[in-house]
Amino acid sequence: VAQTAQARLVRYEPEHGQKIRDRRLLDLALRQALKRDEFYLLYQPQIDLKSGEMVGLEALLRWRHPELGIVSPADFIPLAEETGLIVQIGEWILHEACRQVAQWRWQGRISINVSAVQFQQGNLVAAVHNALVASGLPPHRLDIEITESMNIASDPANLEILHQLSDMGVRIAMDDFGTGYSSLSYLHSLPIHKIKIDQSFVRNLPNAQSEVIIETTIIMAQRLGKTVIAEGVETKQQRDYLASVGCDVGQGYLFGRPSFAIELALDQTSAA
Ligand code: C2E
Ligand code: CA
Ligand code: CA
Ligand code: CA
């Protein structure tokens, strides 16, 4: 019985009749995952393209299911968003990431992804505040990543949350920039400090069209006082190009895959 249930779980297909049953199984498994401590975080380096220094880390969620093995966030976050469970999972992520980073000698920044549902249903400001207080991490070391698809400014309540986070000293990064409809001039009116150029543009390099988008984004973002990060940097050629057009920070497999904290050797309390 368990085997069949697991098989259905992996083949989760929202289109078919199995839907309700599968979703229930996945939902149940997710609720157990929180209780059983099956979630963990990996960290991916963010590199200053001028100095080569690791200035930040993005926390990326993973789920180790006892039978299914490692499940990708893309496979379970959508359902956790639909059921609202992402609010609790998101609070766990905030606490865990801040707790770990505050313990390290390394003094860089930590980027944490939040879902639109955490804006709508959770008390995101309180959750962030609690995670900072509990860990002792200074607010200025925390970046909150939101996505363009959240269409944040369409709801004044969302905008208020962004302002409260920003007033706390937390910085806001717009993730997957270029894939949605927001223009930089419009972002200018929002408390958004960083722009993350989506990896689809970087992956295409060298490509005339991607280069126009990347270079225009960098020029406008920087003139508006925002930092620019490029995601999905996989080759030296991509890195060299991005550095040559003035991109501030790079993130991608070239610099490092998402890794366990211990692999990054940031947990040492004294210099080597
Ligand atoms: P994202 O926030 O855009 O994260 C970047 C994704 O690109 C990550 O996938 C990362 O592993 C992958 N990546 C990084 N560098 C490269 C590269 O050089 N090449 C390629 N091909 N890929 C690269 P991941 O970890 O599977 O996460 C997928 C998505 O799941 C994230 O996209 C984010 O939307 C969501 N997610 C991950 N962790 C969390 C979390 O803690 N909370 C929330 N709400 N969402 C999360
Ligand atoms: Ca992200
Ligand atoms: Ca992204
Ligand atoms: Ca994404």
Automatic annotation (TrEMBL):
Query: Which residue numbers delimit the EAL domain?
Result: 23-272
Name used for this protein in its record: EAL domain-containing protein
* Location of this fragment in the whole protein: 493 to 764 of 764
